[in-house]
Amino acid sequence: MDTLGHLTRTMLVHSFLDEAEALAPDAPAVRDATGRWTYRELARYSRAAEHWLQQRGVRHGDRVVVQWETTRELVALMFGVSRRGAVFVPLNPGMKQYHLNGVVANAEPVLVLTGADAADTWAGIERSAAGGALAEPTAVSPQDVAVLVYTSGSTAAPKGVVEPHAQIAFATMSIGQVLGYRDDDVVFCRFPVSWDYGLYKVLLSCHGRSEIVLAGAESDLRLLGLIRSTGATVVPIVPSLASMIATLAERETLTEEPNRVRMFTNTGAALPQATIEKLRKHFDGARVVRQFGQTECKRITVMPPELDEHRPDSVGLPLPGTRVLILDEDGTELGPGQVGEIVAAGPHVMPGYWRAPELTARAFRPDPVTGALRLHTGDYGSLDEDGYLYFEGRRDDMFKRKGIRMSTLEIEAAALDVPGVHAAAVVPPTDARDLCLFVEADLPPHTVLRELARRLEPQKVPSQCRVLERLPLTAHGKNATAELARLLDAETAPAAAPATPATAPTAPTRTAATTAGDAR
Questions:
Q1: What 8-state DSSP symbol labels residue 296?
Q2: What sequence ranges are listed for the domain AMP-binding enzyme C-terminal (predicted)?
Q3: Are the C-beta atoms of 192 and 198 separated by less than 8 Å?
Q4: What is the pLDDT of residues 484-516, one digit of tens each?
Q5: In CATH, what number does 402-519 get?
Q6: How far apart are the first and last CA of the chain?
Q7: How confident is the model over 43-82, as pLDDT tens digits?
Q8: How many C-beta neighbours within 10 Å does residue 371 have?
């Protein structure tokens, strides 16, 4: 435990690439729709990117905003920024100008590279690579900021999580110790580097000297075929992606291509048990690993792959070298089985939010004994006697209705237990409207509500259910409940104008309204 902490205090983000190059220079490193590089080639292009950045006047500590698709070129540029001692600020290409303006104002970058710049930028980097040009060496410290990850949240202002090299290195090696990426693994990644889930997949692949397949731009219809044809062995998922893979696998005709997937790793929200069972059925021998975390410390717990079928309600054990505490409202540590706020402690806890001292002070608080920063997640859960974590819900997921405290997660889980319901999203009540459930289902709304009443206490049965052909999702594949809430608010507001295309459902809606008694 101490060894891991001491080792990562000397590590830099680009150290993972340099070690992979030294140990396996000709091993495949990264593949996308246009080709593949070895670790030697990726390292060469990253050094060329560092030289190109120096030519553009980028210095130690400068922020570099990059809004590119996730390709081999973006990975090389990320490592080049790290070598330069600058701060990599990856943004989703789908980010609108309004939000981009906010990030740029907050980060104050010296360089902003959008998709329109990508071809010219890469042509310059290739010229540096062809000429063998190298940048002047830059002194980079593990305590330097390596990445700013901008996350969505409850505030309108951009919220950039500050990620130094040392914290990133510790999280990468600690997660790698549990998941055990291998040099024969092929990691099939659909997620952008702008989300830390995609970013760390690149680093974990380097750490394991695995190959990563960047498949975010590929058609959903080709998804299962690509998993088979690329020889994927590790597939990171979120519930929406897992459901898609399971559905495609059910419809798949017999194929001669063998299954090589040995592990699915889930994050974002809990996987329905039915989806887990389908993945195990169609990918024989694959483990389905549950994880829990936040960008502010990357990962909090992982269920060890070999224990994936044990304690199905748990989200796993704390990462090696870290601690999880459960605290009550007064900050008192609670015992096994007691529900309180989940607090993470360890070398993976980031120092805070970029230029947001008030937000930082709220979430990152010193340990009253050691003074080390601890992350107060705002999520609730409990630990059992053996230290396994059980997630109960987020602060924003929890609410009171009819005098009873409840969570959107338990209602969604009950809805997903109903045969014929494929996806579910709950919108909590407000003073103006009651609890509402949205589902993708082969059932009429009143049937869903009737089945819910058989599974939940009367106070927890929503007053109405709406069936959509497809639930809206965020860029990270989570339920876009804010979009659904805006739709409901627009309908309940006095003399409300028709909902705009941005907030209205894109598919026909079937609705049923009921009381708990009617649902029975």
A1: T
A2: 410-478
A3: yes
A4: 999 898 887 765 444 444 444 444 566 666 543
A5: 3.30.300.30
A6: 53
A7: 999 999 999 999 999 999 999 999 999 999 999 999 999 9
A8: 7
